[in-house]
UniProtKB/TrEMBL annotation:
Belongs to the binding-protein-dependent transport system permease family. It comes from Pseudonocardia autotrophica. The gene is araQ_2. Residues 77-268 form the ABC transmembrane type-1 domain. Signal peptide: none annotated. This is L-arabinose transport system permease protein AraQ. Keywords: Cell membrane, Membrane, Transmembrane, Transmembrane helix, Transport. GO terms for biological process: transmembrane transport.
């Protein structure tokens, strides 16, 4: 590997072609988040002003206190945790089992079924909103936890990612376990899953983020404030006080929404790149 230093021209080309776009992309993503976080600590005159500034000159926790008084944070936070934990656990389990069946179980029309799963990735979730609402309400699922969780249990992306990873596993690994008399359940739990940690973690993180941030379906199926999830509950702040005066409280509530997701991401981030690239190495 050459250690020769880059010439000034090549160094400038590298900076312009790589670092500048990278910095711009990071700023586009990060700056609105920083603005939201710092604005949550600003008093109202600093938010509604002709001379906006990023940092608060007089930081205050008043927006968080007011948002907590107007919104049952404990209840909606518990609802979000419950829906996210149960929904994500079931979705990851279904993705693993479905992918295992598509790769390691012999049955006809596997490719047709997989093609059908891929087609669902192209269909926007808004298309199924009305049929799901009609079905769930007819079964009495409005304003219930299972009514929020059930329609989103299928995860084509998770199944796709797990399938692609399972196809990279050496066939000899499974054949050895089969010769030892291991059934499908034992092969899955003792052989396949122990070597699939990064991919399972990636699917789990993507699923957790989607479940936690899901807004449209809980907004449609839930009308009682005590059953709202955190993203939907934030609308109560705007509806109760639908004026510019609620901006600070909305910023504080939005920060409360993203903090748990950031904690989960930090905990699982070392698995993400490995999990996303494992299935791309070999098909």
């Amino acid at each position: 590997m050459s250690t020769r230093a880059l010439s000034p021209r090549k160094l400038a080309d590298a900076a312009l072609s790589a670092y500048v776009p990278l910095v711009l992309a990071v700023l586009v993503v990060v700056f609105p988040l920083l603005w939201m976080v710092f604005s949550s600590f600003k008093p109202l005159p600093e938010i509604i002003t002709q001379t906006p500034a990023l940092f608060p000159s007089d930081p205050t926790w008043a927006n968080y206190a007011t948002a907590t008084e107007r919104l049952p944070f404990g209840r909606v936070f518990a609802n979000s945790v419950l829906v996210t934990v149960i929904g994500s656990a079931i979705k990851v389990a279904l993705a693993v089992l479905t992918a295992y069946g598509l790769v390691f179980v012999r049955f006809p029309f596997k490719n047709v079924i997989f093609a059908g799963l891929l087609v669902t990735l192209m269909v926007p979730p808004q298309v199924s909103l009305l049929p799901n609402y009609t079905l769930i309400t007819s079964l009495g699922g409005a304003d219930t936890y299972w009514g929020i969780i059930l329609p989103g249990l299928g995860t084509a992306f998770g199944t796709f990612l797990m399938r692609q990873h399972f196809r990279t596993l050496p066939p000899s690994l499974l054949e050895a376990a089969e010769l030892d008399g291991a059934g499908h359940w034992r092969r899955l739990t003792r052989v396949v899953l122990p070597v699939s940690g990064p991919t399972v973690a990636t699917v789990a993180l993507v699923t957790i983020v989607n479940e936690w941030n899901d807004y449209l379906w809980p907004l449609v199926i839930v009308s009682r404030p005590d059953m709202m999830t955190l993203p939907v509950g934030l609308t109560l702040l705007a509806n109760v006080d639908n004026r510019a005066a609620a901006y600070g409280q909305l910023m504080a509530g939005s920060v409360a929404v993203i903090v748990p997701v950031l904690i989960v991401f930090i905990a699982l981030q070392r698995h993400i790149i490995a999990g996303l690239t494992q299935g791309a190495v070999k098909d």
